[in-house]
Structures are given as structure tokens and as C-alpha cells.
Amino acid sequence: MSKVYFASARVKKWKYDESMPGKLERLLKEMVLSKYFEKGEWVAVKTHFGSDGAHRIVRPVFLRKVVESLKTIGAKPFVTDTVRIKGLDYLEVANQNGINHLSVGAPVVIADGLYGNDNIMVKTGDILGEIAVASLIYDVPAMVVCSHVKGHINAGYAGAIKNIAMGGVSGSHRHCGWKCGRGAMHAIGEGKFIWDEDKCAFCYQCEEICPLDCINFKDDRFNYYDERCWRCGRCTRVCPEGALVLPGDDELFMKSLSEAARAVLSTFKPNKVIYINFLTEIQPECDCMPAAEVPVIQDIGILISDDIVAVEQASIDLLLKENPLPSSLAEDEKIREGEDILFNLHKKPYILQVEEAERLGLGNRQYELIEL
Fold first, then answer.
1. Which domains, and CATH codes, for the chain?
2. Do 278 and 48 meet the contact criterion of CB atoms below 8 Å apart?
3. CB 262: neighbour CB atoms within 10 A?
4. Residue 286's closest CA among 356, 325, 354, 238?
5. pTM for the whole structure
6. Which pLDDT score, from 0 to 100, does residue 190 have?
7. What tens digit of pLDDT does each residue of 314-345 get?
8. What is the pLDDT of residues 272-293, one digit of tens each?
9. Phi then psi for 250, rounded to 5 degrees?
10. How far apart are CA 47 and CA 39, in angstroms?
11. Fewer CB within 10 Å: C terminus or N terminus of the chain?
12. Rounded Cα–Cα distance for residues 341 and 329 (Å)
């Protein structure tokens, strides 16, 4: 049975030790980082930089606490993510969202190069075959995965598995394109868009939201660059009329996430990766969307473990105990107390990614929750 350490977001005493940054410091001490990381060792602090307009990411103050704790044992941390948009633009987004060298106390770098195609092909399994793992993540000897727990258009639930499955993999490979990158998960390799002209209101939101400028409406027809598009699905999410659909297989998608996560983790030796899940500002969508929704679930706290399956299962178990927040999308969807909020928002069987991760040997769903 794996250990998962937990610190509640509630503050019972008005003192620094009871604050969220203070509790994170205590969680990191409980983990005894020197068991995992060595003096002088480079350690990737993997997070999500957010988007231009999406600010509900893991806050820089928390990333700095992770960096400072790693420096205390003599490790050499840096904060990183893979590109969702052009690399220089993505670094500027990170800076706007408060993630820079001054704020986090460590270099902030792109893991798969400024063009997003600096990667190494790694074998996965029966679904994906192989996938393009970001070169920096492939090469670095150790990693702390800092995940903002939230909803997700495809995954339903997004935590540590999604963070490294999609965030540790490039959007594209310089030779085999999106089919070797995270697009292979989004549509299991061969998804084709279906456009219903009769439903289309020609609002052009799909064109505006595309991070790769793949979509246009030349001659009043929906067109997209098939070889450039990596099937992220943002265009289908924002279509108000349901005129744009990207067919996919939810079960295969969930399993492919776990398969890709295993590929990323296979590049590390045992006991070189730990996971911190931040159950804060739990919004319904991914941090890559061009806006941040109000949270649908109240802040819960922070979880940390060296078992990715255990920390994910513990996160989900805590989410299932919470009630939907008023004046949120959960209220709009008339989700009631006691119901699975994220499932009812997205209708995705998200637990499959955790079950598959366990089946693949990434960890154990049985855990001991140790609260500070």
C-alpha cells in the first residue's frame, strides 16, 4: 500500500505553518527529498504554463517552494513544460502568468524546443506503439510533477497522468508529425473532423481558438490543415451549435493516456519521480484553454506521493466527497450534491486512466492517506 501525504486547504490557525505554502513545505519535508534526488542532480519541475487568458495554474509561489526544497538538498531544479503554441509565445504566456526565473527561483525552459519537435521516440504499447517524448524530459535524471487537478474536454479528469502523458510528449515529431505526438492520444491517430454545415452559425470561434492556425472558412466552408493539426479538440469544445465533431474512442483514449505516461516514466530510473497534485481552483477545463472558468469544486488541498496511481486515486476520492459550487458550470448543468461532478460535466469515463495505469504497473490504487 502506497503512502499519500495530504494537507488541507483549510486554515485553522492564522500562522504561516497553516498556510498553503507553509503546508507544502511540510509535505516536502515529509517526503524526505534526499531519498529521491542527489546533490548536484538536475531535476525537472514539470508543470503547465497555462494560456493567454487561463490563469488558474499551479501558482508560482508553490513552484518556488518546490524549487527551494530541492535546492536545500543540493539539487539543481528547473521549471518546464512542452509547447502548446509557438515556443517563444509560450514562454511569454508563462511570464504573464507569473512563471519566470525571478518568481520561481529557477530557470524556466521549454522541454521540447522552441518549435515543439525536439523529442525522442519511445516505445509505448499496443495502442500507440511509440510516441515522441520531449528530449529534455527524456534526458533529465529526475522529476517532480506538479499537477493542477481540474476537468478536461477529453480526459474528464486531469491530474498527474494527463500532465506527463500529454505534457511530457510533444505535439509533433519532425518526421511523422502529430501522429507520433500527443495528437495520437487525442484521436488515437487517425481522427477526421466532421462539419455539419446546416448547424454551423459561422461564428468562427473554432478558427479563433486554434493554437496552430489550422482552421479557415475559405468560400464559407470549414477547412483545416490535416498534417499540421494535432487534434487537441479545442475547436469542437467552443462550437456553440455542435456543428463540429472529432470522433474518438473514450476507452482507448483513457488507456492511451496511461500508455503514454508509462513511456515518459520509462525514461527515469526507479524512485526518481515524485508527484504533487494541487486540488485548488478546480475548474471544468484544461489550463490550455484561452480563458479560465470559475471553479466547480471548492479548494481541497495538496497531495504528494511517489506513486502516480495512488496520488491520482486519492485525488479522485477527495473530489467525489465534494459538492458542486454555486454560480458555476456545475450549477448550470444542474449537478446535485453527492454526484460525480467532473463525470457529469464531461461524460468521460476518467477512472479508466487510473485503472489502466495500475494494470500497466505504474502504481497501486490502494493507499494510506496521511494528513498533516
1. 2-183+249-371 (3.40.50), 192-245 (3.30.70.20)
2. no
3. 22
4. 238
5. 0.93
6. 59
7. 999 999 999 999 999 999 999 999 999 999 99
8. 999 999 999 999 999 988 889 9
9. -60, -40
10. 22
11. N
12. 10
